[in-house]
Amino acid sequence: MADTNHSTGKKWGQTEKAQWLSEQSVKRSYHQEVMLQVEALSAKFEVVNYGALSYDAERYPLFILKNFNWEDSNPTILITGGVHGYETSGVQGALKFLATKAEDYTNFFNFIVAPCVSPWGYETINRWNPLTLDPNRSFYPESPAEEAASLMRAVAKTNAKIFAHFDLHETTDTDNTVFRPALAARDGVTQDNWNIPDGFYTVGDAENPQEAFQGAIIDSVRQVTHIAPADENGQLIGVDITQEGVINYPVKSIFLCTGFSDAEYCTTTEVYPDSPLVNDEDCKNAQVAAVVGGLDYLLSIR
User: Fold this and answer.
1) What global pTM score does this model have?
2) Where are the domains of the chain?
3) Which CATH number is associated with domain 24-118+136-178+193-301?
4) Which of 15, 30, 127, 297 is a good FRET partner for 8, with 20 to 30 A between their CA atoms?
5) How far apart are CA 246 and CA 269, in angstroms?
């Protein structure tokens, strides 16, 4: 029996991947925790079903929400949550933004919100999909990750040019205890990065960093939760910071969600829910604050 937690120096084949999948189980309800909130929001926003995951189409329908007062002359904002299904506040933060703040901005922006891109991952508390693919490394043409492929088709179908993209994520302690070891085992490599930043940070686009935009998000979130300090090397997760709480990745070349939208402004938020200084509500509020801070900045430069 293959070890699905530690690297053997050999990449997983289909046998090891099937074993990993057999070890996964449903731990919470997408219907109860997400779909019922989407249904409740249908009075305020247009709910568009853009398909379903083939793993269980009835159990995992996919939705985006759009503002009813769509105006083609307004910039369009894309908000995505649950690309990594296990990152709870990304999903719940997107829904809370819709429920509490979005209507304050619909006269100025159009919104496309996909609150839970990976519902199987949400229910099983997983970073990967059932094929051991990471959706947040899979946003490219003909993607084999149907979570990514379905979202890209749905956004393209709107014919909207995305002005800003907020992709809502978390960094959790289970990254070290579960997901980094599994990644090392799957790929037959040694995992060298074990850094878990203690606090909130953002990931911008190295080719288009928009530092003032990122800084506005950080300033907004610091009113809700603490910002992750750099480590002794001036880094977060092995990457040099560009300002407090901000690092940059080449988002397009590594096929992150924020890369496919080709937005002028993009950010990946990273909340730290395992800190003793925060609770679940703080984490949701931090995601909302990140979006609000970014939107207020965009309004200030219009």
Assistant:
1) 0.96
2) 24-118+136-178+193-301
3) 3.40.630.10
4) 127
5) 10
